[in-house]
Amino acid sequence: AITQTESIDRGIEYLQTELQRRGGTRIELLSMIAELHIQKGDWVQAQQMIDQAMAVNPKYAQHWKLQAQVHMSRQGSDKGALDKALEAYQSYAERNLSHPAGHLELYRNFILKSQIEKADEELSRIYALYPKFPELHFYRGQLFTAMGNHKVAIEEFEKELKNNPDAVNSLIALGKSFLAMGAPAEANKHLSKAMQVAPQAAEAKLEAG
Question: How far apart are the first and last CA of the chain?
Fold first, then answer.
């Protein structure tokens, strides 16, 4: 059987052949090769492809997203990695204004940096673009959890579950919020459902005890 790594290697080989055939400057191909290297965990090769793509066209949105992912991989060795990732995601969002992906990544990074107001601003931008964006109430619930407002977080997670009753992330988050509110019975109800929906959900098992 062909392993996933072997499949990725074959994909990289094919794309590199295409790149050479077309002159070595097709920015889409460079970004696709970088993305495959990221999937392999080969961050050095990914960075090389990103650098080449940046040299061809620094305004192209996709390689800023890939650059941010490379920075995120360096958090253990580079104290400034999160700030660099944030800057790269900002560049990605600015070059892709009509798509929510960049704003969602910025939201996640602002949450990691405990910059709650900025995280909320990014969610508001997503809502303005796509009022029915999947899991929007889940992300708002996470935001209020980070603020320590578990009561409002619970309301947001419950809204998400009305739209998608089997959303495992929301079930777990709701259970954790009830635990934080000192309501273990209610928490276990939602954590138990999360385990039923996704038996492999280790976090639900851990929180349920």
Answer: 39
pLDDT computed for residue 199 by the predictor = 84
Q: Which residue from 20, 40, 39 is spatially nearest to 30, judged by alpha carbons? A: 20
Which residue, among 48, 76, 77, has the nearest Cα to 66 in the 3D structure? 48
**Whole-angstrom distance, CA of residue 12 vs CA of residue 16:** 6
DSSP secondary structure string for all residues of 4-68: HHHHHHHHHHHHHHHHHHTTS--HHHHHHHHHHHHHHT-HHHHHHHHHHHHHH-TT-SHHHHHHH
> How much is the pLDDT for 202?
66
pLDDT for position 200? 79
* Radius of gyration from C-alpha coordinates of the chain: 20
Half-sphere exposure of 152 (CA within 13 A, CB side): 10
What secondary structure does DSSP assign to 114-126, as a single string? T-HHHHHHHHHHH
Query: Cα–chain-centroid distance for residue 62?
Result: 15
Backbone angles phi, psi at 57, to 5 degrees: -155, 95
Q: What is the pLDDT of residue 204?
A: 63
Query: Which ranges of the chain have pLDDT less than 70?
Result: 1-4, 201-209
Q: Rounded to whole angstroms, how far apart are CA atoms 68 and 50?
A: 11
**What pTM was estimated for this model as a whole?**
0.76
Residue-level length of the chain: 209
